[in-house]
Design brief:
By secondary structure, this protein is of the alpha+beta class. The protein contains 1 helix and 2 strands.
Length: 45
């Protein structure tokens, strides 16, 4: 019973780490962007 519990815990921990690593944000923002603020278009290049 201890072996099954240990194996299950290790597998769940491995899946948790793998999914957490895939959800990282990009390292830098895009080089160009555009937005509308107060009805006026603003772009950054």
């Amino acid at each position: 019973m201890k072996t099954i519990l240990l194996t299950t815990t290790v597998l769940l921990g491995t899946f948790a780490l793998a999914s957490a690593q895939q959800k990282k944000a990009p390292a830098s923002p895009p080089a160009e962007t555009a937005a509308t603020i107060g009805g006026k278009a603003v772009s950054i290049k």
